[in-house]
């Protein structure tokens, strides 16, 4: 079994986001970038499956500017065998990303494609589902548990009402939840080893996909600020305020 | 052209966010049609036809629609989409799972999780866990939009009398098989629609200690929420998680207990009308969004909270 894992380079989850003064986007210059957190879970799961002897190869793919190579390199350092960087400039919408991934899937012919359930920058939650629609493959979104069977997977999905279990035949797409596993840290020797692993570079423009944005982002603004609250000194005061001032109990 | 709303239901009843999505749909175009796909879902279809904003209901039934598998649902909606300018659903796990499959099939760039309809092609949506809001304009002919349910009021559940048309079912997608759903049943208000939410975080220290949260929630007729840390630690099940990757809640009163207030948690609750934070760490970021902050040990404060509530003559339900 061959597993392709898509990883995205995003602003680190700990960074306080700042909106640009001209309202064209958020500040990304000199800001720490990292792998999209649930994509780390996707890589971890693929590597674990390989370590259990149930996969033969794990390939990490990222789509983005030259620097997204760092994100691929990090995936190699935690156990992916080789990497692919699809080079693009500018904003890519999930539809364009899924079309580019479709081309990579056609070339690499993996049995499984894993990725995070959502990217923490645009919060779209679309790419995995779109890719599975384009390929007409089954999808298991928001996966918190994956069990590999012979030619299928049993996946537990986190849904609003609780948990759902489905069985999907291979080839299939799985989008990973943060609770799927605990991503490992790359050890120094593995970081050194990862430097020797191959990363194939492909220009997105060579893949014959129209990636022109369909959505125009006309303005980006700060969220409305909450007015400052107060500290109360006792539970009695809190209950009195909630009852008589806020009138919510 | 009309707008097509995808109804969410459990084959017997409509799920409540269908009413919020109907409101959002009607802000795009008054001519809202709704499609309900299920198995023996006649009662839910009837309830849908009674929503005041719905002008027509399309009912599609087959045994393989019983469990809402997106691979089965998407082709049905793609086929119906010809007559519609917009396809609308809630941005909850139902709509998130389904809508991108429809959008990709229609070669449309989906707009996720909108909080406001600016015009029929322009919408407001949060990005970066709600730390910025983007105004986005779709250039696609057909628009696929998911709406943040808590940003739109539910429509009236009566007053409508839309005709119900039946449409033909599609084939079953056999590569995906539903096995089971484990729903946690509770008599409490639903987290997404509750007037009051009491949430616990890592500070609760154990699942057993969540009893303190439960007692307070009982008293206030509240839903129970949790931070990701509390869910990850196994104190409580995933359906209680509030935040960027969990649920977004906008209650009248949100009480955060032992929650430090990571930006990912704030993304799910900071629009609440009144926020209370109880935390022993006075520097915890949760206090920056709290209307009323109490710096105290929760294990002392929660029993006192119950005592104080017991002294009140009345508590709003």
Question: What attributes does this structure have?
Answer:
heterodimer; A: alpha/beta; Rossmann fold; two-stranded antiparallel sheet; 6 helices; globular; B: alpha/beta; five-stranded parallel beta sheet
Structural commentary:
- The complex is a heterodimer of chains A (249) and B (317).
- Chain A has one domain: HUPs (Rossmann fold, 3-Layer(aba) Sandwich), CATH 3.40.50.
- In chain A, 26% of the residues lie in helices and 31% in strands.
- Chain A contains six helices and 13 strands.
- Chain A is globular.
- Chain B has 317 residues and is of the alpha/beta class.
- Chain B has two domains: 2-166, 3-Layer(aba) Sandwich (Rossmann fold), CATH 3.40.50.620; 196-311, Rossmann fold (3-Layer(aba) Sandwich), CATH 3.40.50.
- Chain B has eight helices and 16 strands.
- Chain B has a seven-stranded parallel β-sheet, with helices on both faces.
- The longest helix of chain B is centred in the C-terminal third of the chain and has 14 residues, at 298-311.
- Chain B starts with a strand and ends in a 6-residue tail after the last helix.
- Strand 12 (215-221) of chain A pairs antiparallel with strand 8 of chain B, so a sheet runs across the interface.
Task: Give the CATH class of chain A.
Answer: Alpha Beta
Number of helical elements of chain B: 8
N→C terminal distance of chain A: 57 Å
**What series of H and E elements makes up the topology of chain B?**
EHEHEHEHEEEEEEEEHEHEHEEH
Shape of chain A: globular
Outline of chain B, from the CA principal axes?
elongated
Helix/strand/pairing class of chain B, anyone?
Answer: alpha/beta
Secondary-structure element order of chain A, as H and E? EEEHEHEHEHEEEEHEEEH
Brief characterization of the structure:
With 249 residues, chain A is of the alpha/beta class. Chain A has helices at 37-51, 69-77, 94-108, 127-135, 188-194, 235-244; strands spanning 2-6, 9-11, 33-35, 57-64, 82-87, 112-116, 139-148, 152-159, 162-169, 172-176, 199-203, 215-221, 230-232.
């Amino acid at each position: 079994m061959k597993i392709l894992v898509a990883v995205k380079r995003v602003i680190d989850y700990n960074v306080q986001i700042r909106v640009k003064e001209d309202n064209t986007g958020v500040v990304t210059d000199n800001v720490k970038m990292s792998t999209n957190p649930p994509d780390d879970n996707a890589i971890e799961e693929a590597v674990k499956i390989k370590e259990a002897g149930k996969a033969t190869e794990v390939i990490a793919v990222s789509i983005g500017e030259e620097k997204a190579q760092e994100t691929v390199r990090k995936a190699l350092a935690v156990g992916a065998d080789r990497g692919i960087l699809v080079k693009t400039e500018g904003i890519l919408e999930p539809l364009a990303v899924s079309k580019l991934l479709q081309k990579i899937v056609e070339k690499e012919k993996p049995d499984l494609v894993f990725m995070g359930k959502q990217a923490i920058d645009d919060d779209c939650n679309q790419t995995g589902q779109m890719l599975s629609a384009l390929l007409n493959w089954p999808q298991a979104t928001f996966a918190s548990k994956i069990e590999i069977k012979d030619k299928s997977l049993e996946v537990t999905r986190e849904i609003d009402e609780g948990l759902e279990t489905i069985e999907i035949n291979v080839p299939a797409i799985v989008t990973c939840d943060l609770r799927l596993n605990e991503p490992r840290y790359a050890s120094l020797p593995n970081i050194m080893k990862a430097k020797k692993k191959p990363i194939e570079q492909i220009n997105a423009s060579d893949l014959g996909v129209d990636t022109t944005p369909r959505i125009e982002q006309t303005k980006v603004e700060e969220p409305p600020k909450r007015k400052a609250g107060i500290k109360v000194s006792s539970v009695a005061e809190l209950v009195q305020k909630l009852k008589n001032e806020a009138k919510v109990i | 052209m009309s707008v097509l709303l995808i109804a969410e239901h459990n084959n017997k009843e409509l799920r409540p966010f269908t009413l919020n999505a109907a409101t959002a749909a009607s802000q795009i175009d008054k001519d809202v049609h709704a499609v309900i796909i299920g198995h023996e879902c006649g009662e839910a279809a009837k309830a849908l036809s009674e929503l005041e904003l719905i002008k027509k209901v399309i009912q599609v039934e087959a045994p393989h629609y019983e469990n809402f598998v997106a691979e089965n649902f998407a082709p049905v909606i793609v086929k119906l989409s010809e007559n519609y300018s917009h396809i609308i659903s809630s941005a909850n796990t139902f709509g998130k799972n389904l809508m991108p499959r429809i959008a990709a099939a229609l070669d449309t760039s989906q707009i996720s999780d909108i909080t406001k309809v600016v015009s029929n092609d322009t919408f407001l949506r949060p990005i970066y866990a709600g730390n910025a809001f983007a105004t986005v304009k779709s250039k696609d002919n057909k628009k696929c939009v998911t709406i943040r349910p808590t940003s739109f009021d539910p429509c009236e559940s009566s007053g409508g009398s839309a005709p119900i048309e039946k449409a033909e079912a599609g084939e079953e997608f056999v590569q995906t098989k539903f096995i089971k759903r484990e729903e946690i049943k509770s008599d409490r208000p639903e987290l997404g629609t509750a007037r009051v939410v009491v949430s616990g975080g890592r500070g609760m220290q154990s699942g057993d200690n969540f009893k303190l949260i439960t007692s307070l929630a009982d008293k206030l007729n509240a839903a129970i929420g949790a931070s990701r840390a509390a869910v990850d630690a196994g104190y409580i099940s995933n359906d209680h998680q509030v935040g960027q990757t969990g649920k977004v809640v906008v209650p009248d009163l949100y009480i955060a207990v032992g929650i430090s207030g990571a930006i990912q948690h704030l993304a799910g609750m900071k629009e609440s009308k009144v926020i209370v934070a109880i935390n022993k760490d006075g520097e915890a970021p949760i206090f920056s969004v709290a209307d009323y902050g109490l710096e105290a040990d929760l294990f002392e404060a929660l029993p006192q909270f119950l005592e104080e509530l017991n002294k009140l003559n009345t508590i709003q339900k």
